[in-house]
Specification:
Elements: H1 2-7, H2 13-25, H3 28-44, H4 53-69, H5 76-85, H6 92-101, H7 109-193
Helix pairs in contact: 3-4
């Protein structure tokens, strides 16, 4: 219903088209402002450390598609150069290698993204290995603490057992001592009787 109100006073199809176009796309000034905004997005585009290549490329493609819909098109060479420049400093060796090893004028964007994905996979594996080592170290530390506690507990049990053995031996010694005292008397009586 809202669309009908906008074109109600239009007499020709051309007037209807122009009215709807201005309403949905804006005037040429609005279009130029949108182009300026998207060009700025393109210029400041950067890949973050946490972002993987697919996420970065998805954002980049969205900006490129928006620019294309506004009539601003970048050459494949410009897009490749921008993708290489947008990486953080940790990627600098890889970017330098690609720049020196490949001819960027003939390099396909898909080939570049494939190469970057391979590097990204290696980095992700390295992160997992580092995380795994840290976790195992934490587990080792916890295990060492548990072993220390268990060891001290075993020592306490050993000491308690030793004390019990000493007490039993001393009781046995006392009992044997009393038996020894009785034994010579019994021997004398046995000798007298025989």
């Amino acid at each position: 219903m809202e669309e009908m109100e906008k074109i109600y006073e239009c007499n020709t199809a051309n007037n209807i088209w122009d009215t709807l176009k201005i309403h949905h796309e804006g005037t040429s000034h609005v279009e130029e402002t949108r182009i300026d905004f998207e060009v700025r997005e393109f210029e400041i585009f950067e890949k973050s450390e946490e972002e993987n290549i697919d996420e970065m490329y998805s954002r980049f493609t969205s900006i490129m598609n928006e620019l294309k819909s506004l009539g601003k098109i970048y050459s494949p060479h410009d897009r490749i150069r921008k993708i290489l420049r947008c990486h953080p400093s940790s990627w600098r060796p890889m970017v330098t290698t690609i720049t020196q090893a490949k001819d960027l004028n003939v390099l396909a964007l898909e080939d570049l993204i494939g190469t970057l994905r391979a590097r990204d996979v290696l980095l992700q594996e390295d992160k997992l290995i580092k995380k795994g080592k840290m976790i195992s170290l934490k587990a080792s530390q916890a295990t060492q603490d548990n072993l220390d506690e268990a060891s001290s507990h075993v020592e306490e049990i050993k000491e308690t057992k030793e004390e019990q053995i000493v007490q039993e031996n001393s009781k046995n010694d006392e009992k044997k001592g009393s038996d020894k005292k009785i034994l010579p008397k019994q021997k004398r009586q046995f000798k007298k009787e025989n």
